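Margin note: ligand = PBG.
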Amino acid sequence: MIRPRRNRRTPAIRSMIRETALAPADFILPLFFHEDGEDTPIASMPGVTRWSLASLVREAGEAHALGIPAVVLFPKIEEAIKSPYAEESFNDGGLVPRAIRALKAAHPTLCVITDVALDPYNSDGHDGIVGRNAHGEMDILNDETVEVLCRQALCHARAGADIVAPSDMMDGRVAAIREALDDEDYTQVSILSYTAKYASAFYGPFRGALDSAPKDGDKKTYQMDPSNAREALRETLLDEAEGSDMLMVKPAGLYLDIIARVREATTLPVAAYQVSGEYLMLKSAASGGWLDERGIVLESLLAIKRAGADMILTYYAKQACEWLAER
Ligand code: PBG
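Resulting structure:
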């Protein structure tokens, strides 16, 4: 008789036939920080902190020591310096360039990834510049935004970023950023594009962390409709053709089908972002004592990797490494 259970009989056998395993090198840690000298707990994301610049450097060092290869930076920008054109997003003396320089000085082997989008800097809270289209309707101005994104990416490259990650979902931004970087001889700086970024309700806690929610309207004219899967493949082909080095699917846990299909459609590395709302679901189920935190977190990350992600952005990155080391 054929008995599949023989392959599950002992821990040794199970370990030999295991198809997917998590490792610290799979993780990218998103980090929030601000100009303030104090570390502030983020009310919308229990267990996550918005760091001072000094603490950001220490926290990134701790993550790197656990084996995490990369961090991605999310600044909270003071309201007073936000503007409709988001000029602060390409200020060489701004918070992000200073953070990049401090991180690279303290941890030269750490890979520093930056988010390229205008929402932390835009007084309207959108990823692009808010204007009016030819019909007089409110619109996010695509090509004007892409020009600012190029300046932002260059600013991050000058400060020493290893990878820029455009999360804005404007059309044509990957090609434009690649050209801008190459023209200034930043040929070694990679692009990790948010390829299939859905207009998700699961970003709510993140916008609370950065005070970056749109003042008016929503993001549905640039982020993707959660109903669509084929459209993710269209974005995949475009980002690949435009020269992206790595692609991202976001959110992750509810979009495993998209991760698997993007994985099939490209030979490029695929990243997936376990977003703030996913973190909050896991955290709240665990803090109520309803579910076992270690079990649900590691299983959620394993599922994302099994679906086809090479890299996982997760707020649980450090804790996952600690749990993996205990095994
Ligand atoms: C902004 C950006 C967002 C996230 C990453 N980059 C929010 C948004 O698009 O509104 C969300 C991350 C998370 O929820 O953890 N460009």
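The domain at 22-326 is CATH 3.20.20.70 (TIM Barrel).
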